[in-house]
Amino acid sequence: MTDQPKWGLVIDMDRCNGCTVCITACSMENNVPYVGEDDAGYGRSMQWIRVERYWEGEYPNLVVRFMPVMCQQCGVAPCEPVCPVYATLHSEAEQINLQVYNRCVGTRYCGNNCPYVVRQFNWFDYSSDMPEPLNNQFNPDVTVRRRGVMEKCTFCIQRIRRAEETANAEGRELQDGEFEPACAQACPSDAIVFGLLSNPDSQVSHLVRSARSQRLLLEELGTEPRVIYLKSERGLRS
Amino acid sequence: MTANSVPLPQTRAEEDPHQHLLLDPRPREEMNHMVMEAMTATSRPYWVVIGILATLVAVCLFGAWLYMIIKGMGVAGIRRPTYWGMFITNFVFWIGISHSGTFVSAILRVFKAEFRRPITRAAELMTAFGLAAAGLYPLIHLGRVWLAYWIIPYPNQRWLWPNFRSPLTWDMIAITTYLLSSLMYIYLPLIPDLAMARDRSVGWRYKLYRGMALGWRGTEAEWFRLRTAIQIFAFAIIPVMFSVHTIVSWDFAVTKTPGWHSSIFGPFFVVGAIYSGVSAVAMILSLIRGSMLNMKYFIREEHFDALGKLMLVFSFTWTYFYFNEYLLAWYGGDQSDFYVWNALTRGPYMWLWLLMLFLNIAVPWLTLWNKRVRRNPWLLFAIGFMINLGMYIERYLIVPLMITRSRFPFVWDNYSPRIELVMSVGTLSLFLLLYALASRLIPLIPVWEVQEGQLAFRMRRIGKMEVPSVSEIE
Amino acid sequence: MSEGAIHLALFKEIDPAVKAIDTLRGLGIPDQDMSIISGVPYSDRMLGRPMSWTLVPKLAAAGFILGMLIGVVLNLGTPLQYPIHVGGMPLISIPTSLVLTFEFSMLGLLAFTFLGVVWESAFPSFGPKEYHPGISDGQIAVVFTCPPEVHIQVHQSLEALGASWVHRTEAVDI
Predict the structure, then answer these.
(1) Facing residues of A68 across strands?
(2) Which residues fall within 8 angstroms of residue B315, CB to CB, at 6 or more apart?
(3) pLDDT value at B164 more than 80
(4) C153: distance to nearest CA of chain B, Å?
(5) Which of A3, A237, B237, B306 is deepest in the core (most CB within 10 A)?
(6) What angle (nearest 5°) sits at the alpha carbon of residue A77, between those of residues A76 and A82?
(7) Which domains occur in chain A, in start order?
(8) Which C-chain residues 54-113 have CB contacts (< 8 A) with chain A?
């Protein structure tokens, strides 16, 4: 039933310092709308990555650890079979979970069934309410979503497609590290590494095989996520 | 104490055979006249009520819905992680109400419980209108409702069919099946009563009933076909009824959400639906009896007595299922389950949880064992209302409040409804409006079934006691 | 159908009506020239009449099969025609197919039952028919074709049994 993973993300929780530049870069790249102060306060911010903070110890020996969580692109994604209109599917070629904005009718069943709670919903027409000239910042490679549509991290599928098409046009194989999603590109401490898990020579594969202990989030649920977290040597309690 | 100080059974009031509708026959013309009079009498208070309900429906339901379509789902109270809120709670609640009719008119018919005879149509109308109210909610809660037709399976040029593995598609087909079946099941036994109304009406009512009665006369062949069809419906609509609420429960049970992923949800929801449905039937019957002419002849204390017993039995069954859920979550130790139930039983929602337990368990268990309470229509109205409120809270605890405690405490959040409250009021008004209009358009009591029952009942003497005796004439 | 005027006799109770049927049979009127119309259903055995038959159960079964076929085609046919992979599930998943196949089968069964009644009774039919409004008030009508030679005997014997109304009847619009 389960296919071999292809694209994967490795997140080094020792290197993550919680700066949230990944969130900003992702929002810029993928036209994630800014919902405004009131709605963000109500819990409706739509950023595709969230950086979770875990506090350990007692004052004054407090330590905080950060864990960025985005769509895990599950191999056995629970969000997929529950959509009544096939708006979220599994890409056999890229081995990631696709979200088809045009098809979504907004039942939000996928949002409920995602155990990682990484799916976002367009509660209003945030993008069309953007004052000029902020709308010039939209990335032309990515759809601007209107109200009523679910969205989530796509591993920057537009960058994947562009790199694959370029490599195809030039008649060569895709090189590891040739491109990366916006979050990996922006991360100042290289905590996010992206690549081909199916290629044993890629950087992500080396990291996965390294001596560092690692975990998959909610592995016991059998979702087979494609995001691997490298634990620090000191361990993370959660 | 001498033997003479104990009253002989015949002297007790409830034992009087004329208390029973089916032992108190009146000529058919008189019963027809009573039903027609109840149906055609519209007073000024009636029109005031219709006006208020229609305004509430137009403003609170459709007006608010239109506002939500134009602005976006954000005007509702839902937010991550509670992507489903009061809309889906209402959906489950109204589907639960809709199980009332099928229970009374199909299950009781199959078990030959003769007390069902005068109340089947009133209950079946609740099914139809409950489904009408419930069926709005899969549309209301859609983010892009103008594309809702994509869930309907039909060949199209997009090369796309809906996902038949999604419980929402199952919902749509099951509710459509149940609604159509219920409408047909109301209509079939209604035909002879429409013929009676046709024979006693003039003007627009005559035209309406003539059209709806399809030319029914009552020949042997027509009756034979009708009876055969009603038997098939009675047996076949029971599995449909069970399947509909089971499928609605699978919306929740097939997910990975802690608290929802429970194998007991199927029967638990069905039992809860019948529980709230029977209570709602008791409420509607006391309203009908209190507000329409001549209904005190047809709907009697014995019917409320029987419904009260059913309410008590289903209260036991519901409590059994609910305790199952609670005990396993409490004992099992799965941490995500624990946090969900903790939020309900000790967290910010504890007051709701305790209120639900009081309304669903304490109220019926403390009152419905008493025959005098059961035979009182207004007491049963109050108890039925409290039970329905408790069942609504139960669905509210399950649907939005359990998903507030996901597996990642970082995204835990609470839920409080915004425009959903307004639209819930509108939905209740829609149900009541449809019911009030129907009560003056079609005869609420199936007179032919009542007469059939009266033919079957007689008194006979066993020893010193006169007992009612039923013949099986079907 | 033998020639003769169509008569309608109204009875207030079932027993005189059944006796009337026997009397008419004794006077030589065959069963297929008689028809009983009533406001509550009386079974054939109560009336002493030949068994009725109806196609409704067979139509219901046909509807069930049709619904099942539709369910099978939608659940098993469409994923093969337009394959879309979701959630690690196989394209043809029998457990999920059973749900909708059941629903469509039941819908077929019930819809065909209803349509069977309507079709077999030739509903809606608004043309002129033998009827009397007293029937919906609980009276039982015996409608029969009366050959002219037994006309007087029929009237006498039915009135002796307590018929409230025995007349030649023209078909009325109902």
Answers:
(1) A51
(2) B275, B360, B361, B364, B365, B368, B387
(3) yes
(4) 25
(5) B237
(6) 125
(7) 7-237 (3.30.70.20)
(8) 84-90
Task: Tell me whether strands A227-230 and A214-215 are parallel, antiparallel or unpaired.
Answer: antiparallel
Nearest to A119 by CA among A187, A68, A173, A69: A69
Q: Where are the alpha helices (DSSP H) in A59-195?
A: 109-113, 157-169, 182-186
Q: Which residue of B has its CA nearest to C141?
A: B219
Q: What is the pLDDT of residue C168?
A: 66
What is the rounded distance in angstroms from the CA atom of residue A114 to the CA atom of residue B343?
20
Residues B389, B469: Cα–Cα separation, whole Å: 39
Nearest CA in chain A to C82: A86
Beta strand C34-37 with A227-230 is: unpaired
**CA dist., res. B239 & res. C107, Å (int):** 11
Tokens read off for C116 = 């069977």
Neighbours of B77 (CB within 10 A): 19
Contact B388, B364 (CB under 8 A): no
Question: Which residues of chain A does B78 touch, with a Cβ-Cβ cutoff of 8 Å?
Answer: 108
**Backbone angles phi and psi of A105, in degrees to 5:** -100, 0
- Confidence band for B429, pLDDT divided at 50, 70 and 90: very high
C84 interaction partners in chain A (CB closer than 8 Å): 86, 89
Tokens describing residue A138 = 């939209």
Tell me the backbone φ, ψ of residue A67, rounded to 5 degrees: -135, 105
Upper half-sphere CA count for residue A142 (Cβ side, 13 Å) = 27
Give the number of residues written for chain A: 238
Which among B198, B233, B452 has CB closest to C110?
Answer: B233
Q: Residues of B with CB below 8 A from C137's CB?
A: 28-29, 32, 196, 199
Q: Which of B217, B233, B131 is nearest to B184 (CA)?
A: B233
**Gyration radius of chain C's alpha carbons:** 25
Roughly how many angstroms between the first and final C-alpha of chain C, as a whole number?
23
Domain ranges of chain B: 43-470
Report the gap between the CA of A178 and the closest CA in chain C (Å).
Answer: 29
DSSP H/E element including C144: strand C140-146
Number of Cβ within 10 Å of residue B470's Cβ equals: 12
Separation between Cα atoms, residue C78 and residue C57, nearest integer Å? 31
Compute the average pLDDT of residues C125-147.
Answer: 87
Phi then psi dihedrals of residue B373, to 5 deg: -65, -45
B338 vs C: CB within 8 A:
no
Give the best residue of B26, B30, B224, B452 to mutate against chain C (max C CB count within 10 A): B224
Q: pLDDT averaged over consecutive 10-residue blocks of chain A (238 residues)?
A: 79 92 95 91 92 90 91 94 94 91 95 95 89 87 93 95 94 88 95 92 90 84 92 57
Torsion angle, alpha carbons of B79, B85, B87, B93, to 10: 180
Q: Reply yes or no on whether the pLDDT at B1 is more than 80.
A: no
Asked if A75's CB is within 8 angstroms of C85's CB, the reply is no
Chain B positions in Cβ-Cβ contact with residue A120 (cut-off 8 Å): 80
Q: How far, in Å, CA of B224 to CA of A162, rounded?
A: 71
| Chain A interface, best mutation among B89, B140, B166, B337, by max A CB count within 10 A | B166
Answer yes or no: is pLDDT of C6 > 90: no
Report the top-level CATH class of B43-470: mainly alpha
Contact B124, B280 (CB under 8 A): no
pLDDT tens for each residue of B337-355: 889 998 999 988 999 999 9
What's the rounded Cα separation, in Å, for the pair C111 and C108?
5
Angle, vertex CA A8, rays to CA A5 and CA A11, nearest 5: 140
A210 closest CA partner among A193, A223, A224: A193
* Residues with Cβ within 8 Å of residue B4, at least 6 apart in sequence: none
Instruction: Evaluate if residue B92 carries a pLDDT over 60.
Output: yes
